[in-house]
Amino acid sequence: MSTHIQKYLFEAGLFESDSRLSFADISPDNFDEFQAVLEKVANKKSPSGMSKEMDTLKYILKVLKTNKEYDADDDFILGTYKRIKQEIDHKGSDQLDNLLSKLLSGKTSDSIKTSHATFINSSIMADKVFKERVNELESFLKTLKSPHNKTLGNNLVVRFVRKEESKSSAKYKRDKDEIYLRPDRKITDGDGYGSFVYVLLHELGHRYEESHNTKEFESVEWITTPYSMKDTLSGNEHFAELFALSHWPEKYPKYQDQIKKFLEKVK
Ligand SMILES: [Zn+2]
After folding, report:
1. How, if at all, do strands 231-232 and 235-236 pair?
2. Ligand 1 geometric centre to CA of 91 (Å)
3. What's the pLDDT at 108?
4. Within this chain, do residues 97 and 132 fall inside the same structural domain, yes or no?
5. CA dist 112 → 45, 130, 158 (Å)
6. How many domains does one find in the chain?
7. pLDDT of the residue at 247
8. Which of 45, 64, 214, 251 is 20 to 30 A removed from 106 (C-alpha atoms)?
């Protein structure tokens, strides 16, 4: 048995040791092993946002079954391999590995509830990274003071999403009252402009706008960063940018007058 497949069998409780199978390593030598594992998961419900990968997984299983049933010769096997490899390359072996791992572990959507928010992982981010991100963001939310902490109540949900669900690094989803964050986007580390915590606070600004009248901030005197000048799907960005900037006034001396006025108005 390939050493890699043992990881999955281990997670499924069928094998005692723990090492990892990857779609990147598929070859005619392990067709049977892949088939056996895929048969165990093909009828399971797709984890949220992964139905396309689920279809690919089923397709691979179908091709493997056909290959086996036809008592295939070398040419046929090579054809099978090429078809499978093409699908894997198209979808990305990481995505398929992650799907298989989720299906075998029975976890279709991970969520962590902290004192300030519920974090949900609908992305392909690994569990370990998800937990690290949650720790980082929760530690940040704890530090918020008025007016910024006023956006934390009423079951705040922060959802890590795949790129298909959000074109931008983050967005506030009004209809669901959820903040979407893209973990695959390379953003600034720490708490600098564009960091995860900055972006989160910006989106919390949009959440604040939902329950407050912030119309007056649409006038040009509230323009700050280049991004604040954009018209986005969220509408006017003046308020959300100032909401985030004003948590770190000392970092943004360039906008100090506006930040000061902003904090006098928004309490
Ligand atoms: Zn925005």
Report:
1. antiparallel
2. 30
3. 59
4. no
5. 21, 9, 10
6. 2
7. 97
8. 64
Cα 99 to ligand 1 centroid, rounded to whole Å: 31
Q: How far is the CA of 40 from the centre of ligand 1 (A)?
A: 43
CA distance 73 to 82: 14
pLDDT score recorded for residue 157: 96
CA of 202 to the centre of ligand 1 (A): 6
Query: Which tokens belong to 138?
Result: 């929760």
Distance 240 CA to ligand 1 centre (A): 6
Same domain (yes/no): 136, 254: yes
pLDDT score at 71:
77
pLDDT at site 15: 46
pLDDT given at position 4: 54
Looking at the fold, whether 199 and 136 belong to one and the same domain comes out as yes
Smallest CA-to-CA distance from 8 within 29, 35, 28 is with: 35
Pick from 46, 75, 105: which residue ends a domain?
105
* pLDDT < 70 regions, the chain: 1-20, 107-109, 186
What residues have a C-beta under 5 A from ligand 1, the ion? 234, 237, 240
Domain that holds residue 74: 5-105
User: Which tokens go with 107?
Assistant: 């976890």
Bond from prior residue into 147 cis (ω within 30 degrees of 0): yes
Q: Ligand 1 center to residue 125 CA distance, Å? A: 23
